[in-house]
Amino acid sequence: MAFTLPDLPYAKDALEPHIDARTMEIHHDKHHAGYTSNLNAAIEGTPLANQTIEEILAGVSGHGAAVQNNGGGFYNHSLFWQIMSPDGGGEPSGDLADEINRKFGSFAEFKDAFSRAAKTQFGSGWAWLLVDKSGQLAVTNTPNQDNPLMDICNVKGTPILGIDVWEHAYYLNYQNRRPDYVEAFFNVINWNEVTRRFKAAK
Ligand code: MN3
Fold first, then answer.
1. pTM for this structure?
2. How far is the CA of 50 from the centre of ligand 1 (A)?
3. 117-163 pLDDT per residue, tens
């Protein structure tokens, strides 16, 4: 069973001025489409073709670089589009807000930790907020298209929020100013979707 490139859940210009339409177009239609088709090519005719993407990533250490890079790229971008929204920004409420305050001290301290993880990831990669194996919130970063679902990741768990810090995610609008992109990202975070993923992961 082949994986399918998901549609963007909003128009390509919906996240402007924070993320520009041209970046969204190339990012979704070229990069994410490429990861999806390359993943399908890598698993075709293998036992992995009958697994979910989560199952594939959980055993990724045994599947080779093509599955690791493209499987991660397929999953990460599918999550990324969902956890952004033109109606996003602000702060979470309810149980997720309580858990963030308990774990990080305050929303501001969480934002600092997540932003630091995004800004200090050397080269291409992602920063994550995840629910770890003990049910605790954690922040981490990963190189390339790795993510916390992978058995090779140091901090394992279920990602509920992620930011793509590959240059293809921001270079047209922000050039080398990754910190400005990270700051702008907070204006489009879909906390309703992050909360849904938090509850599902607990
Ligand atoms: Mn990307």
1. 0.97
2. 26
3. 999 999 999 999 999 999 999 999 999 999 999 999 999 999 999 99
Ligand 1 centroid to residue 166 C-alpha, Å: 6
Q: State yes or no: pLDDT of 67 exceeds 80.
A: yes
The answer to whether 128 and 162 have CB atoms below 8 angstroms apart is yes
CA of 141 to the centre of ligand 1 (A): 14
56 Cα to the center of ligand 1, angstroms: 20
Distance 171 CA to ligand 1 centre (A): 11
96: exposed, middle or buried (Cβ count in 10 Å: 0-12, 13-18, 19+): buried
Q: Report how far residue 154's alpha carbon sits from residue 147's, in angstroms, rounded to the nearest whole number.
A: 10
Q: CA dist 76 to 19, 28, 181, Å?
A: 17, 12, 18
